[in-house]
Amino acid sequence: MSTPQRTRPAPPTQLRIGLWGPPGSGKTTFLAALQIATMRRTSEDSGNWIMTGSDEASSMFLQESLHQLTSTREFPRSTTNDRNLVFRFTGRQEVPRPRGLLKKKVTEIERVAFELDVLDVPGVKYDSDFSRPDTRPPLDEDDDFDAGGATVDSVYASPDALAEREERLLDHLQMCDGIVYLFDPERDAREQDAFRYFHPVLGKLASRVLEQDRHNNAQLPHHVAVCVTKFDQPNIYRLARVRGFTVQGAEPPYLPRIPDEAAADFFKMLCATPGSNTDLVERGLRQYFATLNYFVTSSIGFYVADNRFRPHDFLNVERVGPGPSDFKIKGRAYPINVLEPLLWLHQSISAARS
Ligand SMILES: Nc1nc2c(ncn2[C@@H]2O[C@H](COP(=O)(O)OP(=O)(O)OP(=O)(O)O)[C@@H](O)[C@H]2O)c(=O)[nH]1
Ligand SMILES: [Mg+2]
């Protein structure tokens, strides 16, 4: 007698993703907010996703960062050490399948799982001057561990060790299927340094990839999710609203957002600051990568009281001291477009593989 066969879910797709952005652009907070984003997602937003850590360090990161963002309402500390994290996303999605003799397309709900393998690096590593010891940033005295509890082998090291770390970053990016590129408009308006943290690594990555390319590609194979961060910052939100980029959510808490189709134009507008080289970041991304998508994001979102966004009281951070990083999160975190870039990367990379 034959035993009934149970169809096993397919093993999770593996996605290697690099996070790219200057120091303080919001890379670690973006990762920290991912789990809240999956929890806040309603099933109408095309599916329910569960996020888990695939190893102990990653589970620990999720636990600690969830506690930080929700209970102590603190932001993660600046990253001092490379940290490899692996998260698994399990959900359901609609998949069109050919059925019957006529191969008519029928939509089926399928369990999907993918594993996100990400390297969170200190943003300072993307600086062309990073390997010059005299220009490296000062390290706080108490900076001997980061939010994930990893001990520091420190950003200070011998030139050889620094060169080795740059190689490691390039090795990682080269092996990535996708990149989340984070652009912090407020930082760039102040420092005008997005290009400085963009072109050295891009140049080295491009020469490595294109030298070894056997398919005569003219562009890099990575799929890139370009994310404008900190949309909740008053200057950025107001600018978006005044220029007509925002729409209001139809469901409570009626959060404003920038529709995906307008995100590329908003990014382009932000990059056009006269006197800076940031326009070259926008052009460079399009020139070097063929598969791009744009998102306007916020890891903590806007302040919501009584399940409602209020245009006169939307700031979700509050100052708790005089220092440059003495900020706390005021209310609940409502991440905006944090999970979406990863879901897009998953879809886009899987489609390119099949
Ligand atoms: N308003 C607002 N501030 C944010 C958001 N995300 C991050 N921040 C602020 O930006 C700071 C830096 O964020 P991080 O996530 O540490 O940035 P990072 O890119 O990981 O920085 P490095 O580790 O130094 O490279 C935080 O301490 C917050 O003050 C956001 O969504 N909204
Ligand atoms: Mg960080």
Summed up, what is this model?
With 354 residues, the chain is of the alpha/beta class. The chain has 9 helices and 13 strands.
Notes on the structure:
The chain has nine helices and 13 strands. The strands form four sheets. It has a seven-stranded mixed β-sheet. The radius of gyration is 21 Å and the shape is globular. The protein has 354 residues and is α/β, with parallel strands linked by helices. About 6% of the residues have low confidence. The two termini are 37 Å apart. It has one domain. The longest helix is centred in the N-terminal third of the chain and has 17 residues. The structure holds guanosine-5'-triphosphate and magnesium ion.
User: What gap, in angstroms, lies between the N and C termini?
Assistant: 37 Å
Biggest sheet strand order reads 2-3-4-1-5-6-9
Uncertain segments are 133-154
Number of domains: 1
Compute the gyration radius: what is it?
A: 21 Å
Bound molecules: guanosine-5'-triphosphate, magnesium ion
Q: Tell me the quaternary state.
A: single chain
The amount of helix comes to 25-40%
Number of strands: 13
The major beta sheet can be summarized as:
7 strands, mixed
Task: List SSEs in N-to-C order.
Answer: EHEHEEHEHHEHEEHHEEEEEH
Q: Can you give the mean pLDDT?
A: 86
By helix and strand content, what is the structural category? alpha/beta
Strand content: 15-25%
Mass-distribution shape: globular
Number of helices: 9
